[in-house]
Amino acid sequence: MEIIFLGTSAGTPTKTRNLTAIAIKKRNYKWWYLVDCGEGTQHQLLKTGLSLLWLKSIFITHVHGDHFYGLAGLLATLSTLGRKDPLKIVSPVGVRVFLETIFNISQEPAFPIEFIDPEEITNTSDDDFDISWIPLEHRIACYGFIFKEHVIAHRLNIAKLKEYGVPSGPLWGKLQKGEYITLDSGEVLNPHDFFMEGDKARVVAIAGDNSKPELFEPYSKELSLLVHEATYTEEAAQKIHEETGHSSALKVAQFAEANGLKNLILTHFSPRYRDDSESTPSIKDIEDEAKASYNGTLSLAKDFNIYTLNRDEQLSCVEPQLSSN
Ligand SMILES: [Zn+2]
Ligand SMILES: [Zn+2]
């Protein structure tokens, strides 16, 4: 699976970080899914290998502007590109009101939109994932989306098939379906001898703004990766007296450690934190705080980082060459 960060700043963009948007997809598949769509997301997309032609569905965590103001422009571009397929948008109802207002005063999209209200429905299924969601704790209704991949139940052991001289084609198809086959030599093969060990489905949670990471506790056993905001350090959070509805790096890290999460990516950093580690305050302050309380694989997202989560739930990161096409 791949998780690509299109924006990692909270509230307002900075020179190096756009507003929140995250793409998730199966590796080597073209289809991808978008979680949140801050203003400028479609411009960010131009600098990645993702194509809007292959956008499957959209998930919006909540109706704070930095998480969805980019939608109207992105949908207009989809129409220009000739999209005809329906587009699923899972979002609080305010997003629907926002978009329909724009459609009324400007232009309708050239394709149907299926809106799903997360208050009424709790999950959906697409070609690549089952997606469910949970309500989070924020100043307004906000959700965390949990992507569980579909796995092929009976993946064939290709090396073993070659070793037995089974020619690719219909015989492989029969084995896949669990049927016995007979080779030209007369040898009969049992399909169960050629199945790989069952693949474990990888599960990735992408949280919206949230002051209670512990809301993910019921899912912690199956989570391969949690992507969560860490808007501030704990010290800064303590200084802000009003309730912000956000988590500090310390809070998320302590939750991840206590629940044995293997992989944690932090994002949605307040613009006050600079990328230059010599500045005060800097993103490194957030990283240091999280590192001190969490022993799993930790990463602080940057715009355009591509994370790969392999079948063994190992997380790796590539900071890609930006495409100029
Ligand atoms: Zn936010
Ligand atoms: Zn918010």
Question: Layout of helices and strands, plus pairs?
Answer:
Blueprint: E1 2-7, E2 21-25, E3 32-35, H1 41-45, E4 55-59, H2 71-80, E5 87-90, H3 93-105, E6 113-116, E7 123-125, E8 129-135, E9 143-149, H4 158-163, H5 170-176, E10 181-182, E11 188-189, E12 203-207, E13 225-229, H6 234-239, H7 249-258, E14 263-267, H8 283-293, E15 297-300, E16 306-309, E17 315-318
Parallel strand pairs: 3-4, 4-5, 5-6, 12-13, 13-14, 14-15
Antiparallel strand pairs: 1-2, 1-16, 2-3, 7-8, 8-9, 9-12, 10-11, 16-17
The structure holds zinc ion (2 copies).
3D architecture notes:
Helix content is about 20%, strand content about 25%. It is of the alpha/beta class and about 325 residues long. It folds into two domains: about 1-150 and about 200-320, 4-Layer Sandwich (Metallo-beta-lactamase, Chain A), CATH 3.60.15.10; about 160-195, no CATH class. The strands form three sheets. The protein has an eight-stranded mixed sheet. It has a seven-stranded mixed sheet with strand order 7-8-9-12-13-14-15, with helices on one face. Helix 2 links the parallel strand 4 (about 55-60) and strand 5 (about 85-90). The radius of gyration is 22 Å and the shape is globular. The structure holds zinc ion (ZN) (2 copies). One zinc ion binds next to loops.
